[in-house]
User: Fold Gibberellin 2-oxidase 4 from Artemisia annua.
Amino acid sequence: MVVATQINPIHVEKNQEMTIPTIDLTGDESKVSKLIVKACEEYGFFKVINHGVDYHIIKTIENESFEFFNKPLVEKQRAELAKPFGYGNKNIGLSGDTGELEYLLLQANQDFIDNTSMLISNDPSSFSCRVNSYVKAVKGVACNILELMAKGIGGVPHSVFTTLLTEDDSDLLLRLNHYPCVTHPFQHDANPIGFGEHSDPQILTLLASNGVPGLQVSLGDSRQWLPVTPDPRAFFVIVGDLLKAMTNGRFISVRHRAMANTSTTESRLSMVFFGGPPPHATITCPPKLVKRNTPLVYKPFTWAEYKSHTYAHRLGEARLDHFKLS
Ligand SMILES: O=C(O)CCC(=O)C(=O)O
Ligand SMILES: [Fe+2]
Assistant:
C-alpha cells in the first residue's frame, strides 16, 4: 500500500506546498516498483516506511553514536584515522568544506568495524556487533529498493543495480553525523549550515535520523529548499550520482543539505548508509536504457575514477557534469 504519496509534477511553484513521496514497502510489488521509479525521476528522494528494519536496531545505533559523541574531544580524536575515515570535526571531505557538525565515517564492512571499534567504544565487541547488524539490515533494504527499481524500469536484469552493492569489495560506508546545538554564535546568521549542499556520489543512500529537524532537499526547477520532517522510524532514500549516470540522467541525484542545529535542547543525529560499487566497477547506462532519441549522456567511468574526482572538488560542485559527453 502507498501512503500519502502525492507526487507532484516536477515543476514547483514558489511557496507551493510540497509533499515528499512516502512509499510503504509492504505494498503491491508492481505498484511499489512504479512509485519508486516515479519518485526517482521527479525528486531523486523519497521516504520508505514498513521497510522491515526493527526500530530497536536503529535506536541502538543512535544510542551508540551519542555515547561516542558525548565523550571529551581528546578521546574522540583518538578515532581520527587515515583521511577520509574516522572522526572529523567541522571539516568535511578533503577540499575545504566546513559545517557545524562532527562525524564518524566508517567503511561498512565487518573487518573495518571490528578493527576500529576499540578506538570508538569502551565496549568494542558490543559496538561492532551492533554496527554490523545495522549495516546488514540497512544494506538489505537498499538492495530491496534497488531490485524494485530495476523491476519498475523494466528491460534490464532485476539485479542490475543490486549486484554492485553485494560484491566482496563493494564500497559501502556508514556516516554518523552529530549536529550539536549551536544557537549562540548564530544570532545574526539566518541560515547556518551543518552540512553544505551536495549530491551523494554513490548509487543509493539510506538516511535515518533522530527526531530533530535539519535535512533539506532541493526540489524542482525552482530549486526551492524543502525542509524534511524527521521520522525516526523511516529511511529517507537519496538517489546518488552513479544511479543518475546508470539511468542516463533519467533519475535525479537530488541536491540536499543539513542546516546547523539551532534547537536549544536536543542534538541532531543522522545515520547515513552509502551504497557504492567496487572500485573497478565500470559505471555506464545499460544499452537497453539508452533510447534512440536520448543518446548516452555520460561517458563510462569507474567508481575509483569518480571517487577521486569527487574528493578533488568542493562538495557543492556538480561533480558528475565532468563526465558528460558533449
Ligand atoms: O545529516 C543529514 O541530514 C545529511 C547528511 C548528508 O547529506 C551526508 O552525510 O551525505
Ligand atoms: Fe548527503
The longest strand covers residues 97-107. Residues 1-16 have pLDDT under 50 and may be disordered.
